[in-house]
Specification:
The chain is α/β, with parallel strands linked by helices. It has helices at about 60-70, 100-110, 130-140, 155-165, 215, 230-240; strands at about 5-15, 20, 90-95, 145-150, 170-180, 195-200, 210. Strands 1, 2, 3, 4, 5, 6 and 7 form a seven-stranded mixed beta sheet that branches. α1 runs parallel beside α3 (about 130-140). It is globular and about 55 Å long. The protein starts with 5 loop residues before the first strand and ends with a helix.
């Protein structure tokens, strides 16, 4: 089965020192300019202004992911279609997942015991929770995929191209997110916090931000995952912009 051309109709990002959307270059957000101490700029970030629903608790990974997706879809001011979008897919990429909630639940388990550790926090510690919350928020009912670990970020684009080719999806949100720090990371490792989301469509929009040919995905230099998937997806977009496929 052949793959399909991908058109980027929207892009959104939540990054240290830069939150935005649209077609402007991510000059201030490229991972090459990032320093580990910059992550503190996102410590107080809230996804609330970008969402239509009310969330009682969100892990930072989910906050970054949801806000980036909302921005890629046009932001809170853009009217989105209502109802289940059965051919709208979603793919998330993360190397370390939602570690803060995992640690919080484990600490409560040790301190309070299994009967009193919060069941509210527990599900927010899964790596697939941010994408699941995004699917609910934006009513994306099509094919979903979660890449968790030291993956090649290009696989997310290949998943989208395959789903467009087999017609199980005609649009897809591709999102990379990270929020891990401290004890969740190996010694000497730091990752770029935040999220980047691409709204990919099968039919060419009037002014696509980027057009990606499936045969060119593997020809693009594979980004390193050493700083996490947020940085890797940024590098991939930069490479594709500099060398259109």
């Amino acid at each position: 089965m052949s793959a399909a051309t991908l058109y980027v109709s929207g892009m959104g990002w939540v990054l240290p020192g830069s939150v935005g959307s649209g077609s402007e270059p991510l000059a201030a957000a490229w991972s090459t300019a990032w320093r580990p101490e910059d992550n503190a700029l996102l410590a107080a970030f809230s996804a609330k202004p970008y969402l239509e629903s009310v969330k009682g608790y969100l892990d930072p990974a989910s906050s970054f992911c949801l806000a980036a997706c909302a921005l890629a879809l046009g932001g809170p001011e853009r009217k989105r279609p209502s109802g289940l979008r059965e051919r709208a897919g979603l793919c998330t990429l993360t190397r370390y997942g939602a570690t803060l909630s995992g640690f919080r639940f484990y600490e409560q388990l040790l301190r309070k015991g299994p009967r009193y550790a919060s069941p509210l926090i527990f599900p927010h510690g899964y790596a697939n929770t941010p994408g699941s919350l995004a699917a609910i928020e934006f009513e994306f009912g099509g094919p979903h995929m979660v890449y968790y670990g030291d993956q090649d970020v290009r696989e997310g684009l290949e998943f989208a191209a395959a789903r467009f080719a087999d017609r199980t999806a005609n649009e897809l949100l591709l999102t990379a997110f990270e929020s891990a720090e401290g004890d969740a990371l190996p010694d000497g490792v730091a990752v770029m916090h935040g999220a980047v989301a691409l709204h990919l469509v099968a039919d060419p929009p009037r002014n696509p931000l980027l057009t990606i040919q499936p045969e060119g995905i593997r020809e693009t230099k594979p980004p390193s995952a050493a700083r996490g998937m947020t940085a890797a997806l940024l590098d991939l977009v930069r490479n594709l912009t500099a060398n259109p496929t």
